[in-house]
Amino acid sequence: MWAAYVFAGRPTPVEPEAFQVVAALDLAVMVPALTMGGILLWRRQPWGYVIAAIADNPGCATTAVAVALLANVGPREQQAA
User: Fold this and answer.
1) Does an H or E element contain 56, and which?
2) Which of 29, 49, 55, 69 qualifies as a FRET site for 36, CA 20 to 30 Å off?
């Protein structure tokens, strides 16, 4: 979801500093954990169920917060240069 803002150069719906923290946490923590859990689940390894259950809770919370922010906060107004 945040990739469109990063790669397309669109203005972020929240302050850029907060947006950068969320993007960094997603890439550093959530993506590897969800990927590893998914691979282990695919192979039906017991640790896959553990990792997926642990990593899925923050993943759902992050998605819920992002949806709430987008629903309640419109895009930032363009500042005059």
Assistant:
1) helix 46-72
2) 69
Element (H, E) at 42: helix 31-42
The pLDDT assigned to 75 comes to 55
Is pTM, for the whole model, over 0.70?
no
Half-sphere exposure of 80 (CA within 13 A, CB side): 0
- The whole-angstrom separation of Cα 24 and Cα 40 is 24
Question: What average pLDDT values come out for the chain (81 residues) when binned by 10 residues?
Answer: 71 74 80 89 92 80 74 55 46
